[in-house]
Write a structure and sequence with these properties.
The protein is built from 13 helices and 23 strands. With 409 residues, the protein is an alpha/beta fold. The protein has two domains: 11-184, 3-Layer(aba) Sandwich (Rossmann fold), CATH 3.40.50; 192-407, 3-Layer(aba) Sandwich (Rossmann fold). The structure holds flavin mononucleotide. Flavin mononucleotide binds next to helix 4.
């Protein structure tokens, strides 16, 4: 279990309302507790129909609050004002159409609403409802009113809904909500540096076609590259993301170009690079590609078969050759042996300003994980070691280092 420094002792009010997606808040509660946050669950009375307070109290390690009065006989009551002041963040998820309407109009007919109206901390809300409900003008107006007044919307996803219909309205996944909150903490250290910076970023694997149905690829998930891209977008940079196939979700402000092969990634990179201040080359680009791509599916014939491979363009090295003053290139190295020596060699050969080294030997680091442990090496040979952290935190460490290097090459 890892406790991430940014989450340690952060106080979260998780306000759950009566939507079918309420059960997903068990997963989110676990994620928050595992990360080191303190969680106080507040439920609307309707939410009890969908998920039990017992489960949430157990997972959050805290009794769940629903009623104004804690004990009618003794007259003890739950102090909504104190709770509202206690929290660092209030998250309302799922937020029903009903609760959104109450929030937008200042109604206060349950404890959850009283806490919302008393909260001085940032408020996030994640609506979830059927697609027609979500499209209704009154729901749209309520959401718009809430965001205009500074509440943070975590938009619903597109997908299958409890009604069986397909569309927009599905609660954002707990992992996504968690990342949104994490990005919020990180963006609190905002500097103006990124506001006028154009950054190109490559991420994910490439696919080298053998025939129309087969390809050569690697295990890269794109998680690290997307985490950096999303964080940079939040900091105000103009981000051009050139992405190989990946399941990750890019911030709405990112200009994204989807590619498949190393050659396509190379052409897209070489086109945008001259206009960029910074190039972050986080993609795991295939070094070789089949010399010939069969136009029809290759049939099984003999016992063994051979595919002749040729080198793909070395994107990082090519960009390194045309790099001008005022541009800064950052590379990544994933090594299995002689890590430091190999990474330093790569830094020189490819004319990087910084190289981020992650080791496959560290548990929790590398492909597909949500965590990473990195070292950053600069041209002066200085090596910085970082602890195992979430990829969002690692992204911020890398971003901080790039900012320093750019200003002080
Ligand atoms: C099975 C079922 C599922 C529901 N799912 C949702 C939903 O996903 N989103 C929503 O806005 N309302 C949903 N509702 C309606 C709300 O439960 C209802 O509006 C309730 O008054 C909400 O109260 P609250 O906002 O105080 O929790 C659902 C109702 C039922 C019976």
């Amino acid at each position: 279990m890892h406790t991430f420094s940014m989450w340690k002792n952060k106080k979260i009010i998780l306000a759950i309302t009566g939507g079918i997606a309420a059960y997903k808040m068990t997963t989110l509660t676990r994620l928050l507790i595992k990360a080191g946050a303190q969680v106080q669950v507040v439920m609307s009375p309707e939410a009890h129909t969908f998920v039990t307070p017992l489960t949430l109290a157990t997972l959050s390690k805290n009794p769940v609050l629903t009623d104004f009065q804690a004990d009618k006989r003794s007259g003890t009551w739950n102090n909504h004002v104190e709770l509202g002041l206690w929290a660092d963040i209030m998250l309302i998820a799922p937020a029903t159409a009903n609760t959104l309407a109450k929030m937008a109009n200042g109604l206060c007919d349950n404890l959850l609403m009283a806490v919302y109206l008393s909260a001085r901390c940032p408020v996030f809300f994640a609506p979830a409802m059927d697609l027609d409900m979500y499209q209704h003008f009154s729901v749209k107006q309520n959401i718009s009113k809430l965001t205009t007044h500074g509440n943070h919307l975590i938009p619903p996803a597109y997908g299958e809904l409890a009604s069986g219909l397909k569309g927009e309205g599905r609660l954002a996944e707990p992992e996504y909500i968690f990342k949104e909150l994490e990005n919020y903490w990180l963006s609190q250290n905002k500097s103006d540096f990124w506001k006028d910076k154009k950054v190109m970023l490559t991420a994910g694997p490439t696919r080298e076609a053998i025939d129309p149905v087969r390809f050569i690829s690697n295990h890269s998930s794109g998680k690290m590259g997307y985490a950096i891209a999303n964080q940079l977008a939040k900091l105000g940079a103009e981000v051009h993301l050139i992405s190989g196939p990946s399941q990750e979700v890019a911030d709405g402000n990112i200009k994204i170009k989807q590619v498949e092969s190393a050659q396509e990634m190379y052409l897209a990179s070489i086109k945008i690079f001259p206009q960029c201040h910074i190039a972050i080359l986080a993609a795991a680009v295939s070094d070789y590609t089949p010399a010939e791509k069969a136009t029809k599916k290759i049939k099984k014939k003999s016992e063994d078969m051979h595919i002749s491979l040729i080198k793909t363009p070395d994107i990082a090295a090519e960009l390194g050759k045309i790099k001008k003053q005022g541009q800064c290139n950052i590379g990544f190295a994933l090594e299995t042996d002689n890590e430091l020596k190999n990474a330093q060699g790569k830094l020189e050969r490819k004319n990087f300003d910084l190289i981020v080294l992650n080791s496959l030997q560290d548990a929790g680091a590398g492909f597909g994980h949500d965590t990473n442990r990195i070292k950053i090496i600069d041209r002066k040979g200085q090596i910085q070691n970082f602890a195992l952290k979430s990829k969002a935190e690692v992204a911020q460490d890398i971003i901080n280092q790039i900012e320093k290097t750019y200003q002080n090459p």
